[in-house]
Amino acid sequence: MSQSQAAPLTAPRDVVVVGATSAVAQAAIRHWAHQRARLVLVGRNRDALERVAADARLRGAASVDTQVGDLADTAFIETVCAIASPTIALIAHGSLSDSARSEASAQYLEYELTLNFVSAAQWVQQLALACERAGGGTVVAISSVAGDRGRGSNHVYGAAKAGLSAFCSGLRARMATRGVHIMTVLPGFIDSPMTAHIANKGALWTTPETIAQGIIRAITRQRDVVYLPGFWRLIMLIIKHVPERIFKRLKF
Ligand SMILES: NC(=O)c1ccc[n+]([C@@H]2O[C@H](COP(=O)([O-])OP(=O)(O)OC[C@H]3O[C@@H](n4cnc5c(N)ncnc54)[C@H](OP(=O)(O)O)[C@@H]3O)[C@@H](O)[C@H]2O)c1
Prior knowledge:
Blueprint: E1 14-18, H1 23-34, E2 38-43, H2 46-58, E3 63-68, H3 74-83, E4 88-91, H4 99-104, H5 106-133, E5 137-142, H6 155-175, E6 180-187, H7 208-221, E7 225-228, H8 232-240, H9 244-247
Parallel strand pairs: 1-2, 1-4, 2-3, 4-5, 5-6, 6-7
């Protein structure tokens, strides 16, 4: 079997994490640090990133490098990915776009789509190529169940995540014979800084640690598309089948 057709690597040897300050990413980083991985942590906030890096070093990471920059800047993406040689990459950055604000500002709408879709797609693409150059690996993109069907309350975020899920689906097919596995993660509600403003979190909510454990498990099993927790697959199956004339009247 030639190197380019080899099975994708799932061992956490060299791991690149984009949006490394995210609560979900931090939980995954703690796991990989215990596994003595070599980590490259990418984010926009130097101080927060250094705190995550220091914690990873304490927990046993073989090495930790940090890359600080604008995650939506194409030149920064290309620079980081040109020197990366990951066996695993996780793309975790995202912003829960404000639908009302996007009605008032076209600039805000454009930025949110750029951050949540365009930049995430660029990171997935470039890191997939970096994995291929390094001999194979797994690229994990955190999308969302919100991308499975557009809702009135978060139509911008949902559209960006839908685009990201579709991009990953196509890229997975492109990379399937090239030793690189593309995994799409579709979490439901996570109790993280992104959702700190939401009161009355109910039974459907879960922790960043649970999502990170699900991601680690799914990498080992080389899953293609994984709903986390798994019950969201059924919920979204039902939601996707609600007729549009009813769905458009639902206030959620
Ligand atoms: N929370 C949920 O309910 C939920 C549900 C489904 C999917 N997701 C997805 O899960 C992923 C991880 O989210 P999380 O729950 O762990 O949230 P989180 O802890 O709030 O993390 C969000 C991450 O995105 C980064 N970020 C936000 N705005 C940014 C910007 N303008 N430029 C660059 N980076 C930016 C943050 O960086 P700073 O630390 O510098 O702010 C942080 O690293 C995201 O892709 C999110 O869309 C979340």
